Amino acid sequence: MKAKKINAKTFNFDNASKDQLIFLVVSGLIIFFAKAIYDLYLHNPTFHMFIQSKGIFL
Q: What whole-number distance in Å separates Cα of residue 32 and Cα of residue 51?
């Protein structure tokens, strides 16, 4: 069995960059929505009391 030879000129990075781009977009959306919900929690006393009534203290 012969070892595969990897040539740097023909090595394909498309899949790795696509996965990295998806990871970046998804993590950005998660951070955005987490910040939006936390701002809603901080600046809306009714929502704040509702969350605390469920036993979740942030």
A: 20
